[in-house]
Write the structure tokens for this entry.
Amino acid sequence: MGGMVVLLAGDFRQTLPVIQKGTPADEIKACLKSSILWNKVTKFSLTTNMRVHLYNDINAGNYSDTLLKIGDRRMLRAVLN
């Protein structure tokens, strides 16, 4: 049978749905990654920061690395230790 190609892009840590009068747990339960369909999704990740690669913009690389550390809570652990 045929399938459907859907392109989803973004940082899923920053794209939780808005549930009016909902709790944070309600938002987590409503997000795409909590869906039973999530296991059927083929996931691809970008591995090269093209702004750094093409323009040799080291500051952009440092900024994106810092954002990822904050998102993964690695920055918080470094500050607390």
